[in-house]
From TrEMBL:
It catalyses: N(6)-[(R)-lipoyl]-L-lysyl-[protein] + pyruvate + H(+) = N(6)-[(R)-S(8)-acetyldihydrolipoyl]-L-lysyl-[protein] + CO2. Pfam families: Transket_pyr, Transketolase_C. NCBIfam families: PRK09212.1 (NF006667), PRK11892.1 (NF008854). It is an enzyme of class 1 (oxidoreductase). Residues 33-208 form the Transketolase-like pyrimidine-binding domain. The gene is pdhb.L. Keywords: Carbohydrate metabolism, Glucose metabolism, Metal-binding, Mitochondrion, Oxidoreductase, Potassium, Pyruvate, Thiamine pyrophosphate, Transit peptide. SUPFAM superfamilies: Thiamin diphosphate-binding fold (THDP-binding) (SSF52518), TK C-terminal domain-like (SSF52922). The keyword Oxidoreductase applies. This is Pyruvate dehydrogenase E1 component subunit beta. The lineage of its organism: Eukaryota, Metazoa, Chordata, Craniata, Vertebrata. It comes from the Eukaryota. Heterotetramer of two PDHA1 and two PDHB subunits. The heterotetramer interacts with DLAT, and is part of the multimeric pyruvate dehydrogenase complex that contains multiple copies of pyruvate dehydrogenase (E1), dihydrolipoamide acetyltransferase (DLAT, E2) and lipoamide dehydrogenase (DLD, E3). These subunits are bound to an inner core composed of about 48 DLAT and 12 PDHX molecules. Interacts with DLAT.
């Protein structure tokens, strides 16, 4: 009381100082960071933190990366930590896997995951299976990262989602970030993990800014692999998605809210191991489920979620069948209007929600 009395007796200036200090204690302002810069920060911090970490791939060094994800890293760390490679994915992926077996922690960048098909033997037969086949004696701590999924105007050979492809394989962890927080926290966790991790970024998200709190900006911040995040709580229907489609789900939820429909939006973050528990708990609450993904429908991520729900306790809480919103079951066309009709749009999610709730 004495302190307060002296404060207010001190006049207007003392009160003003008190209020200013209280305001600054209320929490620091969030920083706007693009997904590209979040990935760059994650690699920068981990290369600095652990001398075993290094980056290799096509044009990652002197050119700063095809998408500028590695901007400034070669100048800062030099040739031994950031290495340009020839255009041969099977070659530099094999070098990276061998380095991981020898005790280093490589980050292997594919200019696009479509090109990882050139190196799939190294990713699956060498990286994913070695720990098991060595009886647990040999770890392969490696991150395969790069853009995944549909881009814009690059046609069929450069526009497919590999989440289901790699999520199918035991021995791999498969990560699919949406925003800057996911990108930074999950990449740091992936680099520190002792298992091979396939890290699926989205080219169309690289330049999108998101607010990062002071906690996320910390060098100690990581996002646990295998844990989904509820981006928007809701009570009537669950929307489950990953990567860029999470943003579409949030947009759809905002539109539907104006019509009195309350959606819960779950950002999967990790494809394998899948956080089925969070999805089940949400379905038990909302009694309805829609899955959204940019990949093809057959044997997709949504199909796996459907199977898990059907086989688990949440099935008994469903009031309607699960609905999947997916990419169209064709190779990606080049024409812009056809391309837009081949990947999920906000209107498709809204339609699926209304169909599930029988309010069309």
């Amino acid at each position: 009381m004495a302190a307060l009395r002296s404060l207010f007796c001190g006049g207007k200036s003392s009160v003003s100082v008190f209020l200013q200090r209280s305001f600054h204690r209320s929490g620091p302002a969030a920083l706007q960071v693009t997904v590209r810069d979040a990935l760059n920060q994650a690699m920068d911090e981990e290369i600095e933190r652990d001398e075993r970490v290094f980056l290799l791939g096509e044009e990652v060094a002197q050119y700063d990366g095809a998408y500028k994800i590695s901007r400034g890293l070669w100048k800062k760390y030099g040739d031994k930590r950031v290495m340009d490679t020839p255009i041969t994915e099977i070659g530099f992926a094999g070098i990276a896997v061998g380095a991981a077996m020898a005790g280093l922690r490589p980050i292997c960048e594919f200019m696009t995951f479509n090109f990882s098909m050139q190196a799939i033997d190294q990713v699956i037969n060498s990286a994913a299976k070695t720990h098991y086949m060595s009886g647990g004696l040999v770890s392969v701590p490696i991150v395969f990262r790069g853009p995944n999924g549909a881009s814009a105007g690059v046609a069929a050979q450069h526009s497919q989602c590999f989440a289901a492809w790699y999520g199918h394989c035991p021995g791999l962890k498969v990560v699919s970030p949406w925003n800057a927080e996911d990108a930074k926290g999950l990449l740091k966790a992936s680099i520190r993990d002792d298992n091979p991790v396939v890290f699926l970024e989205n080219e169309l998200m690289y330049g999108v800014p998101f607010e990062l709190s002071e906690e996320v900006q910390s060098k100690d911040f990581v996002v646990p692999i295998g844990k989904a995040k509820i981006e928007r709580p809701g009570s009537q229907i669950t929307l489950v998605s990953h990567s860029r489609s999470v943003g579409h789900c949030l947009e759809a939820a905002s539109v539907l809210e104006k019509e009195g429909i309350d959606c819960e939006v779950i950002n999967m973050r990790t494809i394998r191991p899948m956080d089925t528990e969070t999805i089940e708990a949400s379905v038990v609450k909302t009694n309805h489920l829609v899955t959204v993904e940019g990949g093809w429908p057959q044997f997709g991520v949504g199909a796996e979620i459907c199977a898990n729900i059907m086989e688990g306790p949440a099935f008994n809480y469903l009031d309607a069948p699960v609905v999947r919103v997916t990419g169209t079951d064709v190779p990606m066309p080049y024409a812009k209007i056809l391309e837009e009709n081949c990947v999920p749009q906000v209107k498709d999610i809204i339609f699926a929600v209304k169909k599930t709730l029988n309010v069309l």
